[in-house]
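Can't paste images in this forum, so I'm doing it all in text. The chain is below; anyone willing to post the predicted structure tokens underneath?
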Amino acid sequence: MTRYGYTMLCEQSGPKELVADVATAESVGFDFAVVSDHYFPWLDAMGHSPYAWSVLGAAAHATDRIDLMTYVTCPIKRYHPAVVAQKAATVALLSDGRFTLGLGAGENLNEHVTGGGWPPVNVRHAMLEEAVDIIRALFEGDDVSYRGRYFDVDSAKLWDRPPAAPPIGLAASGEQSCRLAAQRAEALIAVEPSAELVAQFEREGGTGKRVIGQLPVCYDTDRNRGIERAHELFRWFGGGWKVNAELPGPAAFAAASSHVRPEDVAKSIPCGNDVDEVAAAVRRYTDAGFTDVALVQIGGEDQGPFLRWAADSLLPALRS
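Text version of the structure:
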């Protein structure tokens, strides 16, 4: 059975609002919640970017049932993998084992802040592979010393660990990252409903594992107003991950998406309150083999109308 998730989008809401919204998402019946881990919003108009790990700690205490997940955090530049392991273990304890560590090779948008340049994609994947090895070793509870090509660890140990290590999901968009996810993780994370990607994941050893996708929507009782808001805040989305991972800041995303029209956004993002339109978009993921789909409601000022609509109309329709 498909599991449906709610997205705490740090780029469009403040920390208190995110925690209140995920508590409501739990109460209306979402199965899991994911949180973006950004240093910048995609566009200036989004207006926020609180620290995702603090939000997760608060969310763990504000909820009782809903699973929590980073979607995703990057352990190769802004954070050292040994620090990511400690953060993940702590959130797993705070949430009583409801946490999945979603990892990815990151975006220049967020990782450039620590300096040192932005590595090419093949280097980022090699760095991610080392990072996963370090994190898994620390999850085992032993003293870890490591000398790798990209990372060193000097006598590290996690003193507070959950009884079971948090499962790891890895973001993938191509052959190299898909192979890494199949061989080193419990789940594949992707943002496009690609049956080819899922098939490759299974060929490489991912059969039977979770496949987690994310779908932006813009609920509004006025469809045109929803389209306008989606265009204002999410027109960057159509650039594709190979482009989005390389752009250095919100100004670059604004420039790269300046040619995108509202009608272009409306073709790729369900806008308005048509349950069938959203259900059709979700089916593209489930038909491709995704087991979990997290919804993003575009516009962070007030998530209440979307969450009430999800409870009354959308989730029952999806589950029927």
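The chain is about 45% helix and 15% strand. The chain has one domain: 3-319.
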